[in-house]
Amino acid sequence: MIYPFFCLLALSLVLTGCTPSAKRSSCQSDTTQQHIKMSTENNTKDPTSLVYAEAPLRLSFTDSSGYTIPYCLYLPSSIRDQKKDGSYPLVLFLHGAGERGCDNLAQTNDTGIIPSLIKEDFYSEHPCIILAPQCPEGEQWVDVPWTEGSYSIDTVPVSEELAAVTELLEDICTSYPVDTSRICAGGVSMGGYAAWDMLLRNPDTFSRAVILCGAGDPSHAADIADIPLWVFHGTNDTEVPVSGSREMTEALKAAGASELHYTEYPDMGHWIWLAAYEEPGLLEWLLSCSQ
Asked: Are strands 260-265 and 229-234 parallel, antiparallel or unpaired?
C-alpha cells in the first residue's frame, strides 16, 4: 500500500510544480523562457557582438542556487561602436511592489528613475550601464512588513531575490565594461528597502545611492557612512512610515556621514517619485562620479 501513496505524492508535486526543499521563483516559467529565447542574440559575453536597440536587453539570470529572475539591461551604444575606451558607471535600480512579475517590463516604468536616465539628451551626455532586475509576483526584495519601518539585518536574512540580484550584479560587472568604483544604487518603496539592504550588506560595493520611501537598519549606519546618499520620503506616507528614512538619516548623521542629502515632502504621501526624480541636479549628482 505504500507505492500508491508515493505515486500520488509524486504526481501532486509534478502538477503543482512544487519541490519540498525550497521556494523557487515564479519566473521559472514559460514566460521567462520566452524572454531567454527572444534574447538569445543578445545573450553573449562579447559586448562588441551585441544587437542594440532603443529598448533594453530583456534577459534572465539564474543564480548558483537555481533561483531565476528577469532583468533589463541598458548599454550605451558607444560600447558597441567602441567609441570610448575604459569603463562605465553602473546604476542598479530596484523597483517597488507594483512592478513585480515576470513580464520583464514593468520595472522600467515611470515609478522609477530609468525613464529620466535614458532621456536622449541626458543619456548621451552621461552614458552608463543600467541594470533593472524584476522581483517575482508575491515575493519581496526584503522579507519584512513594509508598514513597520526599520528592521535588523542581523535577524532578517537576505532574501532569495536579493541574493540573486547580488550574484547578477557580480556577473554583469565581469561581463561588461563596468567601473566597479562607480556602482550606484536606486530604489523606491519596496525597492527603497532593497537599496538600503543592498548597501548595508555590501558596503564596499556602492559609490552612491538615491533611495525613496524605504527603511533599513539604523544600527549598521556606520558601515555605510562614507557612501554619498540622497534620501527622499513623504511626511504623510501611510504605506512605508517616514520614520524609516528619518531613523536611517539620523543614524548616518550620528555616524559622521560624509555626504547626506535628505528631502522630505511635507504635503505628500507615498507617491513621491515623480517629484523626487525632477529635483534639480539629482541625476547629475547620481552620476557625478562618472566623468
From this structure: parallel
User: Of 66, 73, 87, which is closest to residue 167 (Cα–Cα)?
Assistant: 66
Give the H or E element holding residue 70. Answer: strand 68-74
Distances (CA, A) of 127 to 37, 212, 289: 28, 23, 12
CB 173 within 8 A of CB 180: yes
pTM of the model: 0.84
CB-based contact 69:168 (threshold 8 Å) = yes
DSSP 88-156: EEEEEEE--GGG-SSSS-GGGSTTSSHHHHT-HHHHHHS--EEEEE-PPTT--SS-S-GGG----TTTS
Place of cell 529620466: 116
Match 528631502 to its residue by C-alpha cell. 263
Per-residue CA distances from 276 to 157, 279, 289 (Å): 30, 5, 20
* pLDDT tens digit sequence for 38-57: 333 333 444 444 433 345 89
- Tens-digit pLDDT profile for residues 220-268: 999 999 999 999 999 999 999 999 999 999 999 999 999 999 999 999 9
